[in-house]
Amino acid sequence: MTFKEMGIDAYPLHWPDGWKRTHARSRSKFRTAFAVARDELFRELKLLGVGDWNVVISSNITLRRDGLPYAGQANPTDPGIAVYFRYKDRPMVFACDTYLTATDNLYAITKTIEALRGIKRWGASDMLERSFTGFAALPPAKKDEKWWVVLGVREQSSKDEIKSAWVRLAKEHHPDRGGSNEMMSKINKAYAEGMNE
């Protein structure tokens, strides 16, 4: 399945399902331009073995055809960045909205991939494979499944009941206990929706 078929585009931002958002963003110590951050990202991914054609940088920045932002464009109100790519024919995603600017969030993802690539360089490639399991880009959950159905509780359940159901299901379906990343993502998303309501 391609990223396009999964409904993932470069614009607007497609934040990964089930990933929490940062509410109190901070300034970074990075001092780089968007073009430099983007080029470094592609360099790190290439060194990891990912081809340019397998990468989607999703953000609220409108881009020219060459992938660079239009000149004079203001930083978007939501500076989050999600980078989707295929690693060993598996869809992956790295996302960051920790910093105040989209450029800094993109560069943070670049530095994270560089650090993970170090695991591969230093010979612990099995650890690299294990670390990537948490970054699997899963197709969006079915729209018709309500959070209370996924958790097996009533729609009017209390937060304690929602948390209790989530803990029980997480123990049962966690990937470390033989469950799947897809099911765990669905449970986490349902939990977040239930707690927000």
- Average pLDDT confidence is 83
Stretches with pLDDT under 50, minimum 5 residues: none
Choose one word for the global shape: globular
Number of strands: 3
The total domain count is: 2
Strand content: 5-15%
Largest sheet: 3 strands, antiparallel
Order of strands across the main sheet: 1-2-3
Give the C-alpha Rg.
18 Å
Q: Helicity range of the residues?
A: 40-55%
Helix-strand sequence: HEEEHHHHH
Structural class: mainly alpha
Helix segment tally: 6
First-residue to last-residue Cα separation: 32 Å
Overview of this protein structure:
The protein is about 40% helix and about 10% strand. Helix 1 (about 35-50) packs parallel to helix 2 and helix 5 (about 160-175) packs antiparallel against helix 6 (about 180-195). A 3-stranded antiparallel beta sheet has the order 1-2-3. A hairpin with a 2-residue loop joins strand 2 (about 80-85) and strand 3 (about 90-95). The chain folds into 2 domains: about 35-135, no CATH class; about 145-195, DnaJ domain (Helix Hairpins), CATH 1.10.287. By secondary structure, the protein is mainly α. The radius of gyration is 18 Å and the shape is globular.
